[in-house]
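Course exercise 7: structure representation. Students receive a sequence record and must write out the corresponding structure in C-alpha cell form. The form below is the worked example handed out in class, using Gfo/Idh/MocA family oxidoreductase (366 residues). Read each field label carefully; the graders check that inputs and outputs are placed in the correct fields and that the protein name is recorded exactly as given.

STUDENT ID: A-19
EXERCISE PROTEIN: Gfo/Idh/MocA family oxidoreductase
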Amino acid sequence: MKFYIIGAGVIARSHAEAIRKLPNFDEIEMKVADPNPQALSGFVERYPDVVTFSDARTMLAEEAKKDDIVVICTPPFTHYELSRMALESGRHVLCEKPLAMNRQEADDLLECARRKNRLLGCCSDRFIGLPKTEEIKRLVQSDAIGDIYKVTFTYRGQRSRAGVEYQPESRWFLDRSKSGGGVVMDWGPYDFAILNDVFKPSSIDIAAAWVSKPQTQADPVNTTYDVEGHAGAMMKYHLDGKTIWVHYERASCTHGKPYHLVEIEGTRGALEWSPYFESDKVICRTDKDGEVVINEKDINNKSDIGVMDHPIYYFYHKVKGEPSPALINEQTVFNFSCLQALYECADTGMLQTVTVGGIQSNPVMK
Ligand SMILES: NC(=O)c1ccc[n+]([C@@H]2O[C@H](COP(=O)([O-])OP(=O)(O)OC[C@H]3O[C@@H](n4cnc5c(N)ncnc54)[C@H](O)[C@@H]3O)[C@@H](O)[C@H]2O)c1
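STUDENT ANSWER:
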C-alpha cells in the first residue's frame, strides 16, 4: 500500500506521524511531493525513508494500486486541482480542510470521486469520534435532556489568527484568494463536522450570518490580508421531523472577552462539553424537585491514536472497508457547503438552505 503526500509543510509532518502508527506500517511506502526544496529537505530529515518529488504529477505518474491514498497537505487554493489530479490517477484522496475554495470545486470533486469509484475524504473529521463527544451523542439520542431546542457553539479567541499569531510564516492564510477565507475556513470545517456528526441534520437553514475583520496594531502590512477573524450565524437544524436552533460563533481575533461555550439545551436538561482541547468533562444539568442537579464526568481519550492522527487513521480504515467515522463523499461536501452558505448568507442577507443536493437561497424561512 502506498501513501502519496502532496505538500511537505507543517501538517504533512503530522500525517507522516499518523501513517507510522498504522497497523501494517512495515508494508506501507510513503512518497512526498513539494516544489519547495527547503520543505522537502526538512521533511526528509525527519523521515529519511520517504521518496521525494518536486512535482506531484510526476509522483502520481506510476500505476495506481487498489488501496493507494493521496493526502493533500497544501494551501486551499491548490486543493481542487491536486485532489482532482489524484482522483483521476485512480487513487483515493484525503484532502486537508477546507475541502475546496467554493461549492463548485467541491461538487466537481464529488462527481470525479463517484466516476472513478474512489473515496474523497476531508481532514475536517480530526475532532470527531472522541469519547467525550461520543458520550454527548449517546445522551442526545437517549432523550436524557428532553426535547432539544437550542445549541450554542461559541469559540472566541482574542489573538489566534492563522498567519499572524499562529504560524506567521504561512501568510497565505490571510489571503482570501489562497485560503478561501479566514476563521470560517480554518476552524469552521471542524465545528460543522462536530455539529453535523452529533445531530445528523437532513438540512440546515442559515437564517442570519455575519463576518468581520477586527484590527490590531500588529496586523501584518505589505501582504494581502483580506480574511475575517470573527464570524457568527443563527441556524436552524432540521432532523427527524424536529428543528433545533444553533447559535454559532467563531473568533480568532476579537476585542471582546475570550471564552468558549458548547451547550445543548433541552426541555428537561442541558449538556456542556468541549469538543476540542480545553477539557474532557461532560456536564449534564438536570432538575430534581425544582433544584438544579449537576452531573460531571471526565471522559478522556485513552487511545494511542490522538486527534492529529484521526484523519489518516479513519480514512485508512474506510478505504480498507472497515468501520470508521471518516467523513467522505456526500457528507464531506454537505459539511463544506455549510461554510459556503454562511458566507453567502452574510454577503447577501438571504436565508440559505443546505441539503445534500446543494444550497438554495430563500427570502423566507420554512
Ligand atoms: N498548520 C496546521 O496546524 C494545520 C492544521 C490542520 C490543517 N491544516 C491545513 O493543512 C493545509 C496545509 O497547511 P500547512 O500549515 O501545512 O501549510 P504550510 O504553508 O506549512 O505548507 C504547505 C506546503 O505546500 C506546498 N505546496 C504548495 N503548492 C504545492 C503544490 N502544487 N504541490 C506540492 N506542494 C505544494 C508548499 O511549498 C508548502 O511546503 C491547509 O489546508 C491547512 O488549512 C494545517
